[in-house]
Specification:
By secondary structure, the protein is of the alpha+beta class. The protein has a domain of 212 residues. 45% of the residues lie in helices and 10% in strands. The chain is built from 17 helices and 12 strands. The N and C termini lie far apart (49 Å). This is SET domain-containing protein.
Amino acid sequence: MDTICPIDRKCASQISVLLHPPPPPQVQEYFEELISSRQCRGIKVKQNGEFGKGVYADLDFKEGELILKDPILVGIQHPSNKIDCLVCSFCFQFIGSIELQIGRKLYLQSLGVSANEACDNEGSSKDFCDTNSADEEDDCYVKECKKLGNCASSSSSNGKVTLPEALVQSLMNGELVLPHSKTFCLPSAIACPGGCGEAYYCSKKCAEADWKSSHSLLCTGKRSEALSREALAKFIQHANDTNDIFLLAAKAISFTILRYRKLKAAHLKGQNKHTDPVELDCLELSLLLEAWKPLSIGYKRKWWECISLPDDVDCSDETAFRMEIRDLAFTSLQLLKAAIFDQECEPLFSLEIYGNIIGMFELNNLDLVVASPVEDYFLYIDALPYSEKRTAEEITQSLLDALGDGYSVCCQGTAFYPLQSCMNHSCCPNARAFKREQDKDGQATIVALRPISEGEEITISYIEEDLPFEERQALLADYGFRCRCAKCIEEETT
């Protein structure tokens, strides 16, 4: 495939400016504002020449103490995980009810629905459910789930126990209330305001925030602001079939475009609309740089250069493999361009920018994990006093048998966190990403593994730190550095 991107040549100077690291004072100012807005107590971001940015303790932390809760800049739930978990598309907390979560999964499971099926419903346009009450909003979701099932495979449920359809439907529509489920109340499922039938939210606040942040351009519903909903559906299908990191890149580009439009509208309000063309070009680049700022901070390399070589690819085939990855990114970019292209933000649709965005995610992303309340519910039932447990299990045991091992599946995805991404690696880290019982959404939660003194750098491990020295170094080479932490220095000399 010819992967020469004409925008790379046409917009070479603008691309160079966008990819040039911001000056240190600007970076410092950005992170100080970010830390203040997040109300993070006790950390600061510093820059040094050897390791770039790093996060440092501004006070003492005790072992197990919360260091940071970092909201997502852009994140996605893995498409395959959507079959198991219904979560808010913005904050990723579980929504609906325990009954809906269980009934929905059993319904799709009984039809043999897989992540790659869903009869192309992901990305298809559906009528918007204009609801007023929480019950109506949940019912709207049930109707969309039934549409999904109507198109799905009618294969068996892979040997799992099959329950009567009426029982499953009663769980989904709220007619059957499970014992003790009110102990695990979840926010109602609120439909996407654009009518895509794919995104659901825990609140109107999250729905509005996602719409303004990126979803208005990536919604396939009737109220979408995409250039072409048909092209957008093709882009989404391609990402689902190949690599869902393209969905994350699309969110990043949409996020930047919408920020740019907002900044320009604010700047031009009350200004002379007949601006000199040269001045307008300078203004547009300046506003694009400002809109791009949250993404400009992250460390970047082109995706096809930094992606790990798969185990089944021989070293002699590495060049061909990396060219295939570049071709794959180019195909994805062309599909995205057809869907949401904005002439004033043209440099964002260059292969150079696209590759660096994906590479930044490859190098900096953290797994997005939110524990399932369904697992908590069944554990709660199991821990009841014997008489209560026996009564409850008369209803719940058949559901647990039908769900099988999948009852405990958590929300899984990937996300970019601005502050967490500044944390450097150590094979003997003093902190880790760890969700506590009270952490119910997709924010990155970093806790201290041991006491951390004021002024000490806060480090995490990018890999499994218990691996042998050479294996660790090989894995870290994909991140572009050789680890020189105390553990590695000691092991290298022994």
